Amino acid sequence: RLHEISEYDRQLENITERKSMEDELRRSAERYRVLFDQSGVVKLIIDPGSGSIADASPAACAVCVGAAAAG
Fold first, then answer.
1. Is the pLDDT of residue 55 over 70?
2. Which residues are bridge partners to 56 per DSSP?
3. For the residues 36-56, what does the mean pLDDT come to?
């Protein structure tokens, strides 16, 4: 019976630890997204496999639109 309780405690601890890590990852992703979106700096995320743009900050989009308009 003691072994069962000990195993239960370990599983509960693992679940709690995983939940905590997931919460921290979510908060980190939210901070990153705010910095990426609200910075006035041109930022591009390039897919290394294809070389295509995977994401662009609003500042990067504004530069591209301005350059296209200038023609």
1. yes
2. 44
3. 94
Alpha carbon distance 45, 32 (integer Å): 13
The mean pLDDT value for 53-62 works out to 94
- The model's pTM: 0.61
What was the pLDDT predicted at 10? 87
HEC assignment per residue over 2-66: HHHHHHHHHHHHHHHHHHHHHHHHHHHHHHHHHHHHHCCCCCEEECCCCCCEEEECHHHHHHHHH
**CA-based R_g, the chain, Å:** 22
Beta bridge partners of 64: none
> Which residues, 6 or more positions from 37, have their beta carbon under 8 angstroms from its beta carbon?
57, 58
- Report the distance separating Cα 71 and Cα 6, nearest Å: 70
